[in-house]
Amino acid sequence: MTPSPPFDAREAQRLHWARAATGNPDIGLVAASADAGFRSYWRTVGESPTHIVMDSPPDKEDVRPWLAMRDVLEAGGVRVPRVLARDVDHGFLLLEDLGAQTYLHVIIDTNADELFDAAVGQLLKLQAIAPPPGLPAYDKALLARELRLFDEWFLARHLGVEPDCDDLENLDAAYRVLIDAALAQPRVLVHRDFMPRNLMPTDDGAGPAVLDFQDAVVGPIAYDALSLFKDAFLSWPEARVHAWLADYHRRACEAGLPVPPLERFRRDADLIGVQRHLKVLGIFARLNHRDHKPKYIADASRFVAYLDAVVPRYPELAPLGRVIERRLRPAFAAA
Q: Across 72-220, where does the E strand assignment appear?
């Protein structure tokens, strides 16, 4: 894997590549967006139409998994960004410019039904794709590793709470419930971050473009639908979430996807949601303390609220509820 040059040299290398890829020696680049990983996105200026340059430093974030999954999704009819030029060894891609607004920028109360209807259409296409050989599974080890991010990064590092023996026993008991429930679900292709900030409106009639799909796995069918409606960056009333999940379930049945009966599906969605919420709390704390990206941890209260809405409904999650009440809530209120 080619080491990335220092930042200023990388900047010059990126601009030189963009000019060669577009065939326009006069264009410039301005920052378009960045994500929680090492990739960054740059919009061309001085040409029309504009393009997006993805910069994925090869020693930090190999672009090949992104390209491979993009091709899988496109072959399955999912709208994804079009790749116009590539330099895989140096980590540069030239993409179509889909604009500056994701679903997260444009979704409001009055258009949410329409936008989510289109998003579910893309999700059903994604879930109908046969996972490619060798795709990682959302297995016991991965589920457990994600859950332990909550212990290590959110409780211990962010809140300063060192779980004692009782806490660890309670967490272990709850995690067994969550992992067993996830492994019992029907398995499909899972995006793992199917949420409004990773969907972009398009004007070509193909539905929203799906972004940030490089970490896809084979896993529980309720995962992506739950991620869509219980987002990391905005919240909806429980009644609307329930209605959207029921609509997704109806459409998934009609599409022949292996969803269980609705009441079982609701339980599956709730429990995989708890797993995701705990994981994301850990990830956001890690982004803050290890990667010096503090903006994400501001949404921690959203995930605590998600947990508060679901955990009390399931007696089998009472051990997690005890940790929340005894350890998380007092420390979180004081933070």
A: 83-87, 92-96, 187-190, 199-200, 209-210, 217-220
